[in-house]
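User: structure tokens for this one?
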Amino acid sequence: MVDELSIYVPDRAGELARILQLLKDADVNILGLTIDEVQSVSIARFIVDAPEIAKNALEEKNLTVSVSKVFTVRLAHAPGALHGIVATLAKAKINIRYIYVMQQKNSPDPVIVLRVPPRKEKETKDVLEKHKFAHVRLKDLMA
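Assistant:
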């Protein structure tokens, strides 16, 4: 599993740019990103090459940062590939809280980022391994 940083971003022009500048200044490379709007705030979720450095840099500027464990799984670049993973987890009664796609640096295949309830993490790992879905480690995302 990989650490994902979640940051609450106020709904004001320039806030995302400020966060990205802080990460740039801390020499943190963003590997994956999704942003979801929730009422008057957005939640930015980042996969970065140096999660602890990123977290510290953001918290120093009084930003609220939470760290979650997420799965990063290689996805075949083919119709139905995402369905295969999602259906396999559904059959095992594992709920996916959210999912997004990122790209691995030197691979033509996308990587999905998925979060499941913490109590289901071990079971999810076992199901993914049993069905030969390839987990991508943080160091491999950067290679």
